[in-house]
Amino acid sequence: MNEHENEERVFEMGVVIPRRVIQEKDESCDCVHVLVKEFEKVGFEVERVIGIADEFIKLAAPLETLGRAAAELQIKKRTLIGMDLLFEVEEVEAFVKQPDGSIFSWCERFQCYCHLIYGIVNNSKSAKVLKFDGKEVNWKIGENLILKLESENIVKQVFPLHDEKKRKKLLKSWALHWCHFTNQPIDEIYTYFGAKIAIYFAFLGMYTRWLLFPAAFGLTLQLIDFGSLKLVVLPVFFVMVILWAIMFSQFWKRKNSALLARWPISSVDITDGGYKITGRKESSWQPPMELMKVLESDRIKEKEAFQKSEWLGRFMRFRNDAFIIFSIICLQLPFELAYAHLYEILDSDIIKFVLTAVYLFAIQYITKMGGKVSVKLIMKENNENTEKRADSLVYKVFGLYFMQTYIGIFYHALLHRNFSTLRQVLIQRLLLSEVLENLLENSLPYLKYTYKKYRVRHKKRAKGEAREKIQFTSRVEKEYLKPPYSASIGEDLEDGLFDDFLELALQFGMILMFACAFPPAFVFAAVNNIMEIRTDALKLLAILRRPVPRAAATVGAWLNIFQFLILMSICTNCALLAWLYDEKGKWKIEPGLAAILIMEHVLLLIKFGFSRFVPEEPAWVRATRAKRNTQAQDMCSKKLLRTISGVDKNFGEKKLN
Q1: Phi first, then psi: what are they for 321, rounded to 5°?
Q2: Residue 160 pairs with which residues in a beta bridge?
Q3: Nearest 5°: phi and psi at 609?
Q4: Predominant location of this chain (predicted)?
Q5: What is the SS3 assignment for 218?
Q6: Strands in 215-374 per DSSP E
Q7: Residue 149, Cα to own-chain centre: how many angstroms?
Q8: What letter would DSSP give residue 29?
Q9: Where are the domains of the chain?
Q10: Do residues 513 and 572 touch, judged by C-beta distance below 8 A?
Q11: CA-to-CA separations, 585 to 482, 573, 593, in angstroms, rounded
Q12: Model confidence over 208-246: pLDDT tens digits?
């Protein structure tokens, strides 16, 4: 490990402590001094920074310290022969390096940091009395130091820090680099933010590139007057759009598998073995204690006990899903239909504006309340790990947003067949809503950051401690005041990626399900997504704190939601085409209507058959995996044969003696 010990020191974690009024003379009892010494014993490089209102401890971990923590955590890493083996500090050169040349990914480093920070306990033979600002803290034998200080409000927060060198490099090559439109340094994003965020931006970039084809087709339909041929051109456009969506979904799976093969993803990134910022490990689902007792006492009942636990968990998930669906139908659906009906019959634009404002305020409260109820229900499910619980939350909350976003559009399209109003609603949602969402998404965190700085200055002036203008000079204090990358429904199971993926999914459904009514919608979506790539990058790098890495390497439940929207779009666009052909509502089976019905069934067959035609993994990924498996098997076979032959020789020599 000597070759890596000369790496530049980077402080990646920060600990926040309130600034003290009383300084302790005896350092052996000083709480902050003891905490710093314990960090140094663990192997951290420590730097203390005195801020305006708080004190900060910055932590950097040398490779040797991280390697020791990785070995204690039994992290598996990919080796040069393709096998995933437990990490060993002495054999560091046998493991595959990250794209930037480092040994550990950001997710692995974060897990090691949390293990070391929250692994400090009192190993002495007696309790210790620590003092902080005139307050005494009794640190008992075997008690965790950080958790104790957090309970006493001495440690306010532990949070990840930005790496200034890499952050500025990404700002230049990614967030502020508008010339390349959808091209992004995905490998550098993976190295800095982890697999989950890199997968999101890879998905967003590919989705935006693929939008250019239907956007050009839809713009052509809008600019050219086809006259009577429009009833022929629209079905062609509809078929092309559905085929486009089906191909995009399948080719994204290939792209995702190619990225995972290119990155040295360890078991930490794939499985749920990470830590939250609280330091409590989020382990996989374990059998209940009742089952463990049954296994110890009676092996015959093992199968029955596990089956009972499995089906009980499935029943709980089914019960929660049914409760959410029933709530949406009974509570949210009448509210949405009432708003859509009033908007249709009202003539005054002022009253419509007031109605829309009241609706938006009420629906935000309903959605937020539904998200909290969903989180409480999911906590009672025995899902396998945190990512499974997050997927369950995505399905439930998306149902709320689906009803909120589309029920009014369905009302105008399917009940009243008012295509002019339908186009107006689509333009409002696509143009105004997405622009306003982008502005709020980036301006609100900055306003929160500005308000926090104002509060700190105001408190200092109120105490009479500052007469001159207060300047925030330390980088760590500025990062602490920035908002975290959190979801609008809460921080329990999801981070800010929930809102970003939700925005993409709602946009995808809107442009696809009503493609025949407003073909230029794809142009609005393409332009918005090009801006979204850079604004999201700027938000992550400059406006928010560095996100906590997620232990996942796919888009998860969102891919299933996109496929569900494709199925919905086949049905809704066929209905729109049928009403265009049957304006009088006679519903005669004429050649045009018959062709639409046949088209619907053919597209559904194509949707389910295309996944068989195009494999989810590229051939080179399968070949690489097969080669690695063969190499690993050959090496293990040779080592096993040498071990067996050595054992036989030793046995023969002993027998002769």
Answers
A1: -65, -45
A2: 13
A3: -90, -25
A4: membrane
A5: helix
A6: none
A7: 30
A8: T
A9: 13-161, 171-265+309-463+474-617, 621-649
A10: yes
A11: 58, 17, 12
A12: 999 999 999 999 988 888 777 777 888 889 889 999 999
Q: To 10 degrees, the CA torsion angle through 508, 514, 515, 518?
A: -110
11 phi and psi angles, rounded to 5 deg: -85, 115
Q: Where are the beta strands (DSSP E) in 157-246?
A: 157-160
Nearest to 65 by CA among 84, 85, 47, 89: 89
pLDDT digit string (tens) for 507-566? 999 899 888 888 899 998 999 999 999 999 999 999 999 999 887 778 888 999 999 999
Which residue bears the tokens 């209102």? Answer: 53
Terminal Cα distance for the chain, rounded: 44
Q: Which residue has the tokens 């909290």?
A: 372
Tokens of 27: 């350092």
Print burial letters for 635-645: b (CB count within 10 Å at least 16), e (below 16). Answer: eeeeeeeeeee
Contacts of residue 192, defined as CB under 8 A and 6 or more positions apart, other chains included, come to: 106, 163, 166, 167, 170
What is the pTM assigned to this prediction? 0.86
Q: Which amino acid is at 563?
A: Q
| pLDDT under 70: residue ranges of the chain | 1-8, 266-303, 306, 360, 383-384, 412, 414-416, 418, 432-433, 463-468, 490-494, 581-596, 646-657
Q: Determine how many CB atoms are found less than 10 A away from the CB of residue 146.
A: 22
Nearest-5° angle of CA 613, CA 617, CA 621? 140
Residue 47 sits at φ, ψ, to 5 deg, of -135, 125
Phi/psi-derived region of residue 101, left when phi > 0, alpha when psi is between -120 and 50, beta in every other case? left
* SS3 letters across 508-548: HHHHHHCCCCCCCHHHHHHHHHHHHHHHHHHHHHHHCCCCC
